[in-house]
């Protein structure tokens, strides 16, 4: 089996991340590095963790370092990992003060309790002896102060999300889906959230709605988390493949349904035959992939290009 790989850096504007050339270089470099792992015999699970770590470490993307700040000015991150061969899902929700949430999701693959939220995730970070790390960047702090406006000058700032805040801040996520040389699939997704959210809000990224894989296919999603949850998008695409639709059909039908529901989301996918697919209802999907012979991306798709496949 020729390994295949697809990654995404979210659904927000290219301009917010340094422009087309900068984003393309970042994504292509990560695809190349992770694909080397796959061609050297690395497993899909190893490749997904590596890819998520590299994306989390890039401050241009809203995951790990460079995550957006919540209503109270704190960073809380969520991530999940799914081993398609074992159909095993693990994840952490609203974890703080660590560098790579995907590492915690990886650790939980071998545990009986595989999804932990804030307090449990904090205890796990101490158990794993992960170094304390502040993922907030100067850019994100300044962004938060500008978004909050006069509120940060008050004695007690509001601690609930502003429903009028710009939508671009709500669509940052990273994700990786890999098919290894043994035909096994894995998917991983990580996010800093949508920014300015109400404390305790849970995103799709640590749910099967936003990250799902079986031995038939794997999907990682990005966009407005509530829309992805409402569509149960990742699981829907994978189940349709299992039920006999090819990956392109499953993605096209699922995105068509999401368009009818006026959603704002995107998804990347691979199947066990090595097909690559993506879909979106949002204006842009920051994705790149490796076909086994070449690297490509979706960065210049127009608003009317709602799905594609290779």
Automatic annotation (TrEMBL):
Among CDD domains, the record links this protein to: Asparaginase_2_like_3
Q: What is this protein called?
A: Isoaspartyl peptidase/L-asparaginase
InterPro entries reported for this sequence:
Ntn_hydrolases_N, Peptidase_T2
């Amino acid at each position: 089996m020729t390994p295949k790989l697809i990654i995404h850096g979210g659904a927000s504007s290219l301009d917010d991340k340094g422009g087309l050339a900068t984003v393309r270089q970042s994504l292509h470099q990560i695809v190349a590095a992770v694909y080397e792992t796959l061609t050297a015999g690395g497993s899909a699970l190893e490749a997904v963790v590596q890819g998520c770590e590299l994306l989390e470490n890039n401050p241009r993307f809203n995951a790990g370092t460079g995550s957006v700040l919540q209503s109270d000015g704190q960073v809380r991150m969520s991530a999940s990992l799914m081993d398609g061969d074992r159909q095993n899902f693990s994840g952490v929700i609203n974890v703080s003060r660590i560098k790579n949430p995907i590492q915690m999701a990886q650790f939980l693959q071998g545990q009986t309790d595989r999804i932990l939220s804030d307090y449990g995730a904090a205890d796990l970070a101490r158990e794993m002896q992960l170094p304390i790390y502040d993922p907030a960047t100067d850019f994100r702090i300044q962004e938060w102060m500008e978004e909050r406006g006069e509120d940060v000058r008050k004695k007690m700032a509001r601690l609930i999300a502003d429903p009028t805040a710009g939508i671009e801040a709500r669509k940052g996520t990273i994700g990786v889906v890999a098919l290894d040389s043994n035909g096994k699939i894995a998917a991983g997704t990580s996010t800093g959230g949508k920014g300015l959210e109400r404390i305790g809000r849970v995103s799709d990224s640590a749910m099967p709605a936003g990250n799902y894989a079986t031995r038939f296919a794997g999907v990682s999603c990005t966009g407005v988390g509530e829309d992805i949850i409402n569509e149960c998008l990742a699981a829907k695409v994978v189940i349709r493949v299992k039920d006999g639709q090819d990956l392109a059909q499953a993605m096209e039908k699922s995105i068509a349904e999401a368009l009818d529901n006026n959603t704002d989301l995107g998804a990347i996918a691979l199947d066990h035959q090595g097909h690559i697919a993506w879909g979106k209802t949002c204006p842009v999907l920051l994705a790149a992939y490796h076909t086994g012979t070449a690297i490509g991306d979706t960065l210049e798709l127009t608003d009317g290009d709602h799905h594609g496949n290779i």
